[in-house]
């Protein structure tokens, strides 16, 4: 209640301005010479509580706090699934990841990827003359046919998957099958330029260069394309373990290496914002910052904070799927507003399409245009419903407004297990979850089941879930959805 009141008070003073802005036609947004540039910065495993403006302590994030002060900070922003590949697939396609056949995290041995038939954000924006670049982690298929240049991007530098998918231990030694069977089987971790490997990431010193590498290329991209509309996507590899900071930040925070890494990401945001400002692009650039899922809690001091929400990465509890999100667009998004309405990663694509005046994908998507929330419209509520899918296609919960109904399922849990430290993972467990109803307005930690008090809410949310199962399916109930699509598949050579 208190945060709602604060948000209301912060917005009331802007009501007269934002009401007018909310009524502006899309064509008015395009009046500054060309459609607005878009910069989308995504972190890996950053928790809801890992920025100062979301409650973090013992290190500073001044550039991200400044971003929030000049735009909108979301408090109920969700990813499609609390795991890397699924979350990124939803972001780039505007779909629940289960709709397009991407679940969990893809590995170097995976034979699927993002289907090239899906229309991505850069492909949508390309129709309006945008140039697109990605500098960072891809993780939607490592085979050439799935890489960014084949998915609408014009430039790419980065890793094809997570930075822990390599064969090395933290001390630099090669992992043996006895130490870690998965690590021992991994191929070299490639840094890719375009479609080709230019370097193998072998050491923690190599890992420590990644944030700076991505940032430098992002700045060059802005300088290069300052006179045309561009979409810049910077999906950082950090703070996914193994974490490493450059010499600029190593030892600089009061929260150890994890704090150093987050401070360096904040620095990266500052460098990108400086490049936008230097090139005179600030008023015509929408900047979005978010995380792909919640923190990997069993890594202890090398993991972030879920900000008081339950559990973390790899679960459909709030700590896994609710993430920080900040957006800034001077002259369009009012300064310093807090949005407590539900929004999701797949809402970014249709919102950008609206802003750019571009057509939506031909195939069905799940995203909703949230431009009204960006404009500060107090009465807007474009997304009332959110579906919590996990694993390959399991509907584990559904939310409508303040209510979240959780269905019986098996869940990973961090609770009751001592976390690891210094890059070594602690143990996790599994629990059987039973049906429960939570009022997230009063109980964001999901501790008090109130299904017996509100049977009518349970019935309403159960109906929504049944409709979702018919559309998207449900692995828990062995239901195949009517409108799911196949992922891209690796071509298998014919036998000779």
Textual characterization of the structure:
With 496 residues, the protein is α/β, with parallel strands linked by helices. It has two domains: 2-19 and 34-384, 3-Layer(aba) Sandwich (Alkaline Phosphatase, subunit A), CATH 3.40.720; 387-489, 2-Layer Sandwich (Arylsulfatase, C-terminal domain), CATH 3.30.1120.10. Helices cover 26% and strands 19% of the residues. It is built from 14 helices and 21 strands. It has helices at residues 2-12, 15-22, 26-29, 62-69, 84-93, 121-126, 181-185, 204-207, 210-224, 256-278, 318-321, 348-356, 371-374, 455-472, and strands spanning 37-43, 72-78, 112-113, 131-135, 155-158, 190-193, 196-200, 230-235, 285-291, 322-328, 337-339, 343-344, 385-390, 394-400, 403-406, 409-413, 429-433, 436-439, 473-474, 479-480, 488-489. The strands form five sheets. Strands 1, 2, 4, 5, 6, 7, 8, 9, 10, 11 and 12 form an eleven-stranded mixed sheet that branches. Helix 9 packs parallel to helix 10 (256-278). The longest helix is centred in the middle third of the chain and has 23 residues, at 256-278. The protein starts with a helix and ends in a 7-residue tail after the last strand. Residues 1-31 have low confidence and may be disordered.
């Amino acid at each position: 209640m208190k945060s709602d009141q604060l948000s209301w008070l912060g917005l009331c003073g802007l009501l007269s301005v934002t009401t007018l802005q909310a009524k502006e036609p899309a064509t008015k947004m395009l009046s500054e010479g060309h459609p607005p540039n878009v910069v989308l910065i995504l972190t890996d495993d950053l928790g809801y509580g890992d920025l100062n403006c979301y409650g973090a302590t013992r290190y500073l994030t001044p550039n991200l706090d400044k971003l929030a002060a000049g735009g909108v900070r979301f408090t109920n922003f969700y990813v499609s699934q609390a795991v890397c590949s699924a979350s990124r697939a939803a972001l780039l396609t505007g779909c629940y990841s289960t709709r397009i056949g991407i679940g969990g995290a893809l590995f170097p041995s995976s034979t699927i990827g993002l289907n090239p038939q899906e229309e991505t954000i850069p492909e949508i924006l390309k129709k309006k003359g945008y140039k697109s670049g990605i500098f960072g982690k891809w993780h939607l298929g490592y085979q050439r046919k799935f890489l960014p240049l084949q998915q609408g991007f014009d430039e790419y530098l980065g890793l094809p998957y997570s930075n822990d998918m390599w064969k090395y231990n933290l001390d630099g030694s090669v992992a043996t099958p006895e130490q870690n069977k998965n690590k021992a089987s991994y191929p070299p971790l490639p840094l890719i330029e375009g479609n080709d490997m230019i370097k193998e990431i072998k050491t923690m010193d190599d890992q420590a260069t990644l944030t700076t590498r991505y940032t430098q290329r992002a700045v060059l991209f802005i300088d290069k394309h300052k006179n045309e509309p561009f979409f810049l996507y910077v999906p950082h590899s950090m703070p996914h373990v193994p974490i490493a900071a450059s010499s600029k930040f190593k030892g600089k925070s009061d929260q150890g290496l994890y704090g150093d890494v987050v401070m360096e990401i904040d620095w990266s945001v500052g460098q990108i914002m400086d490049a936008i400002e230097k090139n005179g692009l600030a008023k015509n650039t929408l900047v979005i910052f978010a995380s792909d899922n919640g923190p990997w809690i069993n890594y202890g001091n090398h993991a972030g904070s879920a900000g008081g929400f339950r559990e973390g990465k790899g679960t459909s509890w709030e700590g896994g799927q609710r993430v920080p999100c900040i957006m800034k667009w001077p002259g369009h998004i009012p300064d310093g507003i807090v949005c407590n309405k539900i929004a999701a990663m797949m809402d970014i694509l249709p919102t950008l399409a609206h802003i750019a005046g571009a057509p939506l994908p031909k195939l069905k998507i799940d995203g909703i245009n949230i431009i009204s929330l960006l404009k500060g419209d107090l009465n807007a509520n474009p997304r009332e419903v959110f579906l919590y899918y996990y694993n390959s296609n399991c509907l584990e919960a559904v939310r409508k407004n303040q209510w979240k109904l959780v269905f019986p399922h098996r869940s990973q849990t961090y609770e009751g297990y001592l976390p690891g430290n210094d890059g070594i993972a602690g143990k996790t467990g599994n629990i059987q979850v039973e049906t429960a109803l939570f009022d997230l307005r009063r109980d964001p930690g999901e501790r008090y089941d109130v299904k017996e008090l509100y049977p009518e809410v349970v019935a309403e949310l159960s109906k929504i879930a049944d409709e979702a199962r018919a559309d998207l399916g449900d692995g828990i109930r062995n239901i195949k959805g009517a409108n799911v699509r196949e992922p891209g598949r690796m071509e298998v050579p014919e036998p000779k």
